[in-house]
Amino acid sequence: MTQLTGRPILEAPGELGARPVLSALLTGVRTALLGLSVVTVPVLGLWVVTPFADDGAAGALRLASALWLLGHGAPVLRGPAGLPLSVAPLGLGLLAVGQLYRAAGRVAARGAGRPVGRGGVPAVWAGYCAVACAVVAQCAGAGEFRARVVADLAVVALVAGAAVAAGARRPGAAPVGAEALERALAGLPERVRPTGGAPVVRVAALAAGAGLLAAGGLVVAVAAMLTAVGGGAGSAVFAGGPAAVAAVLLLTLVLLPNTVLWGAAYALGPGFAVGAGTVVSPVRTALGPVPEFPLFALLPEPGAGGWRLAVCALPALAGVVPGLLLGRAAAADGGRADGGRVSGPARPGAPWPVAATVVAALASGLLVGGAAAGLGWLAGGALGVGRMAELGPVPWWTAPAAAGWVAVVSAPVAVLARSRALRVAAGGPGRSWRSGVLLVPGALAVTARRGALLLRARAYSVVTRLAGAPGPPNAPDTPEAPGAPGGPVGPAR
Hints:
Layout: H1 2-6, H2 19-49, H3 57-71, E1 76-78, E2 83-85, H4 90-110, H5 120-138, E3 145-147, H6 149-167, H7 178-186, H8 198-230, H9 242-254, H10 256-268, E4 272-274, E5 279-280, E6 284-286, E7 303-304, H11 313-318, H12 320-330, H13 354-379, E8 391-393, H14 395-425, H15 442-467
Antiparallel strand pairs: 1-2, 1-3, 4-8, 5-6, 6-7
Helix pairs in contact: 2-3, 2-4, 2-5, 2-9, 3-4, 3-5, 4-5, 4-6, 5-6, 8-10, 8-12, 8-13, 10-13, 12-13, 12-14, 13-14
């Protein structure tokens, strides 16, 4: 009787062997259905309010399934001719990856330390892929949008696996690629090795990437303002009534990350393509006929660059913050009596040499270039065959531009920030009298002060001579000149 009253009749779900796996499987299914509903509900709502809709509810569901697959980067076919459509709306992709990441993290936290919970994370992936199989099957038949069964399932499974694996990592685990970066920096010669600099290199690369994304967003915002003021093209899209306007606005929203990446590629210099043989860059813009869509209305007018070259200053500003971070890290371990000139090999606990600081800036630039190549490839795609088969940034041009801008700007900024930090830590000149903020380098301040004093003395001398004023009196202990009044008289000749 005591055993019956001391234990609950129904055990907790986590204590049964099969329930954690089943719960994780249902978590994956629920995550996929939630992401699918985000696409399906607006599409069905627009189908309901659209008068004289050509397709029925089955066509609207097929469109929602195609958009869901495109959000994962899975290509679909369009029209009777089977034209490829591979432009991924990154807004939907970010939503799907974020949901999977959180779901896998929750399941991994529940199953931590339990042998029966080790299969929970793969069960999340399996449940998500089960819904993907149903979506591909529903979109595989004849219709306006058709799925490519094998390719689409493989892409969705790959994206879901990467998101689940990232979400299931331990809270204190190192970021992906951190160990590889540390090994790469540790293999450098001692004179150019930024000792313990892998974390700050990653942070500097993240700061540079955020700056480039902010530059892309600023470019898009300015283009939208200029288009709104000038009454640009794309107004014909809004002639289809409220349903058409809502559809265009929703599609613009899910394509907004793509647009920001295109703006970043534009600011970097290489720009992007809107069709084969076209280019949209600050240097020149060469376009052909483009689809009637509001985002394409933001494109600049064809012709030479002119004032649009000013946007190239935005990537330069994005490289300043990484340089300051690297400079602070390079001088974090103290000032030196020699004013910060470190020429020997780096020692643990000592400031980095100048060469190691430059190497750290180059490493952060390479990380940003790799990320720019991947994101540029994801942001582009195809809207068909022939001319519209090329759309978006060109990865092999965007990546070197991003790496070059970050490295060229952040390297000298890091060296200057390191020099200033070491000089201030050593007690050198160059601080303001009120808050101790570094105003100018110490050597420049001393030189400027000496020059100002010398200039003032010479100006005073010139003014006194022009005014005819007597010279300065002699010192008391100096004998007066011979023949002066009241002075000693020399011998007569």
